[in-house]
Design goal:
Oligomer: single chain
Distance between the termini: 28 Å
Largest sheet: none
Number of strands: 0
């Protein structure tokens, strides 16, 4: 019986994932924005600020890990709006009357968002290579990059599912993601934290994006990683677990309303 339920949930999750992927193909504007905005930010920082910011290496090499995180964050934020649209648009009510596992809706958004993020991140890296990015990573390091980015994207996707379940309209869903999208700008993504005022330096050093970016920088460029890898796993592994639990609770609450 348990295996049957798991199979049912998995197949329904795959059905809703295919729905999300079809939306990515049809809604080309969202995908282009998820790609275009990080690429524009990267080119702007490299071309406009690169000559003025001293990082001890070519600025394009320094800035790319932060742009990758910004790209993934922006792509994930779309999930909050999509979940809210499904909640208020009547899809959730229709699912309740069909032989579909209701939580498959959340799974579909998470995996679909991951696919969108993977596409956007790949394009950003390719553009970075064209404008001078020179990673030193081998196969093992690239696998490490994929692993840590997967953890980051999934944790953020589930967090934005929570946001989408909490709010009552699309406008609020769009606004509630802003603090998370802003965090990379107050980290070591674009400038060394040592250049910041002391009060901001303390925050930048101890918020989750900085160890994540330093881990990516270390894997891609061979800079020291230290404890940043374990801090990143702790931050985003914990966020993934908490967000999944909270999303499940909120979803069940919506079922009973």
């Amino acid at each position: 019986m348990t295996n049957s339920r798991l199979y049912w949930a998995a197949m329904d999750g795959w059905t809703m994932t295919r729905r999300s992927i079809k939306h990515i193909v049809r809604e080309k504007e969202s995908l282009m924005m998820a790609i275009g905005l990080p690429v524009a930010i990267m080119i702007m920082f490299v071309a406009v600020f690169g000559g003025a910011i001293q990082t001890g290496t070519d600025y394009v090499n320094y800035v790319v890990p932060g742009v990758i995180i910004t790209c993934a964050g922006f792509g994930s934020s779309i999930i909050a709006v999509s979940v809210t649209q499904d909640m208020i648009g009547g899809l959730f009510e229709r699912l309740r009357s069909m032989p579909l596992h209701p939580s498959s809706l959340m799974v579909g958004h998470v995996i679909g968002g991951f696919v969108r993020n993977a596409i956007a991140t790949t394009v950003v890296i390719l553009v970075a290579l064209l404008i001078g990015f020179q990673p030193e990573a081998g196969v093992v390091e690239w696998l490490g990059v994929i692993g840590i980015l997967t953890l980051f994207m999934l944790s953020l996707n589930w967090l934005f599912v929570v946001f989408g379940l909490l709010v009552k309209n699309v406008e609020t869903a769009n606004a509630i993601t802003f603090p998370m999208l802003f965090l990379p700008y107050v980290s070591s993504a674009f400038v060394p934290t040592e250049t910041m005022p002391s009060w901001l330096h303390t925050f930048a050093e101890n918020q989750p994006m900085t160890p994540l970016i330093e881990t990516l920088r270390g894997l891609l460029l061979g800079t020291p990683i230290g404890t940043n890898l374990w801090l990143s796993i702790a931050w985003f592994g914990g966020l993934l677990i908490i967000s999944f639990i909270v999303a499940t609770i909120l979803f069940k609450k919506r079922k009973t309303e």
